[in-house]
Amino acid sequence: MEARHLRYALTLAEHEHFGRAAEALGIAQPPLSKQIADLEREVGARLFDRTRQGVFPTAAGEAFLTRARRALDEITAAAVDAGRAGRGETGRLRLGFIASALLDPLPLVLRRFGHERPDVRLELHEMATSRSTAALVAGELDVAITLGPPRGPGTEHLVSVPIGHDHLIAVVSTTHPYAGQPSVSVSQLRRQRLIVAPGEDEPTVTAGLRTLLGKDSTALDGATVARDVHTIIGLAASGVGVGLGPSRMLSAPRPGTWFCEVTPRTPLPDLILSFTGRDQSPVLIAFLDTIRNNCPAVGATLDHRLSAL
Q1: Class for domain 3-86, per CATH?
Q2: pLDDT tens across 223-235, in order?
Q3: 149 within 8 A of 273, measured Cβ to Cβ
Q4: What average pLDDT does the segment 144-151 reach?
Q5: What pLDDT does 2 receive?
Q6: Which of 17, 193, 215, 279 has the fewest CB atoms within 10 Å around its CB?
Q7: Closest CA to 35 of 15, 68, 58, 7
Q8: What is the pLDDT of residue 200?
Q9: Which pLDDT belongs to residue 206?
Q10: Interatomic CA distance for residues 303 and 298, integer angstroms
Q11: Strand ranges (DSSP E) for the chain?
């Protein structure tokens, strides 16, 4: 029994006449009569009464047609669902990210992806770089946004592209002596109480700060350790000290704070987007398209990496 047999039966029941039903189906009447007879033999029951007034479903026919209608509806829905899944309009995307990515570029990317793909289930996990890298390699994430490139066993199978460049800046309360200054020097920072992100989450940044401030400096020894950049800004606004973090913090101005450049200018590790090269899921491809459209500088690099697979 095929889907066309169900359509033939439903069309015959609708038109109550073999000729009119055949015309509606775009086939000749004899083949339709034969197909209905074959269907009745397969079902093992007479589905239609043939009378001078027309062709009408029997009790068995009514029962069959009820199920046939549902079956065709399911077949149509299945085709629609398959098409949507194939276009990346449904499914699941598991994304791990560091907190500072919520400053830029994640807000715009997630907003647009959610608008374009409202039926894709986004599973978002704030994670330290080391944790998200391990989860991506283990297949527990589809995409990871980390500080610096992923490192460790299995990362050779990942495709990684930079999606953000950063340098070190300082944030202080508007009542702090540095407020109003365009920049602060490293020598000035050595004399201040500092607020930094934890080394566990941002090890490369912490190591870079120690190098910047001097290996013999004790400035970081008494530093206040904040969970993330949002907390750094909040503590600085509270007058706790001088917050140090990525220049992405400029996209999250807060009343009562002042941002200063740090001199000499100190580059920080890039924000890196990574995914498994063998993952060809339509949802991931759709997400990468959103990245291309909203991070124009990323597109060429991403295409180059993908072409090398």
Answers
A1: mainly alpha
A2: 898 888 889 999 9
A3: no
A4: 92
A5: 87
A6: 215
A7: 7
A8: 45
A9: 65
A10: 9
A11: 48-51, 54-57, 91-97, 120-126, 143-147, 158-173, 183-185, 194-196, 224-225, 242-246, 257-263, 267-276
Domain ranges of the chain: 3-86, 93-162+271-307, 165-269
Backbone angles phi, psi at 165, to 5 degrees: -115, 145
Is 72 exposed, middle or buried, given 0-12, 13-18 or 19+ CB atoms closer than 10 A? middle
What's the token pair of residue 47? 């589905």
Which residue's entry shows tokens 């606004």? 237
In sequence order, the 6+-apart residues with CB closer than 8 A to the CB of 160 are 149, 150, 272, 273, 274, 305
Domain 165-269 carries which CATH code? 3.40.190.10
- Bigger pLDDT: 78 or 173? 173
> In this structure, what token pair is assigned to residue 147?
């500080």
Q: What are phi and psi of 30, to 5 degrees?
A: -60, -45
Distance, CA of 80 to CA of 281 (rounded, Å):
18
281 close to 142: Cβ distance less than 8 angstroms: yes
> 3-86 with 93-162+271-307: one CATH topology?
no
Query: Which token pair is 152?
Result: 């460790």
Pairing assessment for the beta strands 158-173 and 194-196 based on DSSP bridges: unpaired
Q: Treating both helix axes as pointing N-terminal to C-terminal, what angle do 29-43 and 18-25 enclose, rounded to 10 degrees?
A: 100
Whether 275 has a pLDDT exceeding 90, the answer reads: yes
93-162+271-307 belongs to which homologous superfamily? Periplasmic binding protein-like II (3.40.190.10)
Sequence-distant contacts of 50-57: CB under 8 A, at least 24 apart: 54/16, 54/17, 55/12, 55/16, 55/17, 55/18, 55/21, 56/13, 56/16, 57/13
Task: Give kind and range of the element (H or E) at residue 286.
Answer: helix 282-294
Claim: this prediction has a pTM higher than 0.85? no
Bridge partners for 57 per DSSP: 48
Residue type, 245: G
